[in-house]
Structure formats: structure tokens, C-alpha cells
Amino acid sequence: MEAKVIQSQEEFQDVLNRDASFYLLKHSLTCPISARAKQEYDRYSLDTQIPMYTLYVQEARELSNTIADRYEVRHESPQALLFENNQVIWNTSHHDITEAVLREQETRFNQ
């Protein structure tokens, strides 16, 4: 299932209302580290049932900041967040965003 792009507060609220758990990638369109992380994230998204979303930081700065404030997770880019029941239960950033790490979290999550 390919990751869906979200850009607005309303879209994010819809995700929270619809999905009990999901991944969100904060992605910078200009950073090579973020580009590599997005490749890993996208590859993983093709082989999981967990809903996957992407936020382009340059296009949704306000939403990115709101998420950082609301969930008290310091903003980084790239940054992968795993939500469950309207809480961030795990996050990582930069070179630690790999298909293997995301899969490991899914395994721990499903136990």
C-alpha cells in the first residue's frame, strides 16, 4: 500500500479519526538524507498493512509544527513516527529510517 501525502490539519484529523495506528514520514523535499529515508519508507509501504502517510515539510510546515507541539516530539526531517490511538508510540530520524527498522517496529507492535 503506497504512502498517501497529507498536507492539512483537516487531512491529518481525518487520518486520526480513521486509523487506529499508522506511520507518518516528515520528508524534506530538498535533503538527500531525507530522499534516501523516503526510498526506504516507500519500499516498506509496499509490503505492510499499516497505513502509511507522508508529510512534505516545505508544503505543510504548519501541520508539521502542530504535530511536533501536540505530541511533544521534537521536529526532525526526515522523521518517521508511529501512531497508535492518537499517541506517538515510536519515532526515529535521519539514517535510522530504514525498511528493516520500520519492519522491526511493526513486529514489536503486532505482539
TrEMBL record:
Top-level taxonomic group: Bacteria
Segments passing through the bilayer: none
Protein name, as recorded: Bacillithiol system protein YtxJ
NCBIfam families: B_thiol_YtxJ
Record-linked Gene3D superfamilies: Glutaredoxin (3.40.30.10)
SUPFAM superfamilies: Thioredoxin-like (SSF52833)
Record-linked InterPro entries: BrxC, Thioredoxin-like_sf
Segment forming the signal sequence: none
